[in-house]
Amino acid sequence: MISQIGSIAISLAGGLIFSSFIFLCLYKLRNDKTYLDISERSILSTCYCIFLAFFCLLNELLISNFNLQYVAQYTSYETPTFYKVTALWAGQAGSLLFWSFITSLFTVIYIFETLKKMENLKFNSYLILTFIFSFFIILSSFIANPFEPVSSDIVVQNGNGLNPLLQNFFMAIHPPILYVGFTGCTIIFVMAMAASISKNVSFDWVRSIRRWSLIVWTFLSAGIILGGYWAYNELGWGGYWAWDPVENSSLMPWLTLTAFIHSSMIQEKRGMLKKWNILLATSTYLLVVLGTFITRSGVISSVHSFTAENLGPLFFTFLSVLILYTVFWFLRRKTYLETDDKIDSFTSREGGFLYNNLILILMCFTIMWGTLFPILSEAWDGEKIYVGQSYFNQLNVPIGLVLLFLMGIGPLLSWKSTSYKVLRKNFLIPMSTSFFVGLIYFIFSVKYNFYVLVALMGVSFTLTSILGEYYKSLKKFRKRNSNIIIATYKMFMSNRHQNGGYLVHIGIVLLFIGFIGRAFESEKEFSLSPGEQIYFNNYIFKLNSIKSEARDNHYAFMSDIDVIDDKNKLLTNLKPEKRIYFYWNSDPEKRQPHSELDIYSTIQKDVYSIFSAYDAEKNLGYFKIMINPLVNWVWIGGILMVVGSLFAFWPNRIEKIMEWFNQIFIFFLLFIVIAYVFWPLINKIK
Amino acid sequence: MNKVSTSIFLIFIVIVGWIVYLTNIKQDDSLTMKYYSVQELINKKSDISNIKLGGNIKPNSIEISEDDQLEAFFYVYQNQDSVKVYYYGIRPDLFTDDAEVVVSGSYSNNLITAKELQTKCASRYEGDLKNVEKI
User: Fewer CB within 10 A of the end CB, N or C, for chain A?
Assistant: First the structure.
């Protein structure tokens, strides 16, 4: 019953979005605002139908209705409730509906919050939203319908269950957070296109789109960092970033959005770079769609790819239409987007932002080129080329280092132009600190590495520069408040936009400290029998035992390793496991081996242990140990980035916060009403 | 040219140079690797420093050293052709006879010395339903 309601809700959404298009056409023909209002209501109703369909699917997952193909494929009776919820985005059909769900959520906020103040963007916004919604509703209705029943000649006794790799808290929250970021780019695209088409690229528009960008950027950043954290703690290859095509697909829009956030500041301050900003805002969404095409088409092999239905051609068509539409309107509005004001000097804050934009776009292009190169090369001359991590690392490391220095240079420059005297005064301390740190490293390093030298200099330069800026502001506030805590608080609250931005920059500097650690990583693979030990990297690894036991959904081989340091003191005890999921299956192909790793983590380094294989005949365990320095700085930096960004865009006044809470409250209320209505039905089915 | 124009010109040169460099990455062995089929490889007379090869493990060809369990030799085959591979390290879980593998490393004297060994994972979670009963 509920599944039928869900299915009907999707079809209804399709009908409503079509009617929205009809009313938009009527509005254009008759210029009667009533039609625009009806269209708005149609779009809102579409969103509500998608909400309903989403909650219906959630319900079916929770009650394990295995009559639905999707539910049977991604959950089982044994799947814990939390992971039944996360199964919503585990497969193609569910994730597409989830995508539409978040887009709907953003659309409702956009209509009530943004368009209320910018009436003249309504028509074009609705037109573009109608197109985007139509595409996703067509996918959910005809290609990947999550309410598709199983074949009528079978009865599913139990579902397949969720992939054990996905049964991890961070994996559960990483995709939805990233999806929020991705779908948020839809609104940025819609706003940018609507403003340029309707010639309303105003000051209010810049302020509004910047706020949207910051929100979306926060989610994108959090999603990317969480993905890395999951990979590091669950996948067992000892790293957090592998330059996989899908990882790259999330990084590319992040880079263009970062560029946009910076360059839109110039537009806000001086009304410049309109064209460039429209390009950045629109290309961010186009890159999201490109990424989705990569993930769901199978044209590039990736660990993240969905394999069930090939949505490649459809996404390619969707992407092509969006590109053509963007290019068409960009060319038509080129003259309108021209600005008279020009950059006076490149040693100015605007110049710094422009360099930053250039570097970010160069990085984005390099990543895109490396990701698409295998397809391009094969199409060009039939040669199959593999672009590995070395390409991305070798080319992006120098670009990243320039970016690191630029983050420190930016705050030292003045708007319009910076005089030589100010330059010398501002650069003196950061430059001296940077050279001093470089010299210390050069003299005392055991394992010299050029990139590490430059990165250390960059880190110290940028940190000194940002902390110097904080210090200067604090000095001003100390004149009025003798209490340092009050002065610091007031200083931070005085210009949250800028101070939040600096916090984000410090977060990125900490990320770089984590990246530096990669240069000093070491690893060893070995086999041990219980009682044996091995010496590696100043530690003794002693295998005490290997035990085994059958658990609820897997069979586990559990190792017990003592790690003893060079002073012969027990540092820690590691217990990596080798697990076999679906071990009861007679077909070995259906069994899923998995290494559950164990990490001894400190702020200086991680001792990362993987139990790779077990030879029962010889009672021999195969292990991999990695010593990963400074990894925790990546997570600390990531958290600071998100916190800084939240600090920057959080509403200023308490009334504004209350307004936001009201919006969220309405959604919760909607959720409770739906849950209340459906509860007897859920119980009945149970 | 004033300073601003010079800067723009320099930026333009950097971008063009970078694009030209990127179009030639295929020539750079340290950045990219060419995929070979087994047949393509055995027809090559010369040594290759950086290759990637896909195929299946020839049944009964896996030899694991008695002295060091991490040392293994095996053959990768495609149709009638096969090539010998040496690999030192922990082998993936799905490394068995006839498993589909991708090896990367160097090729010399009809032997691939693999630095990396990956098995292609069968699609386990998007496939057929497991616990079903026919009506």
Answer: C
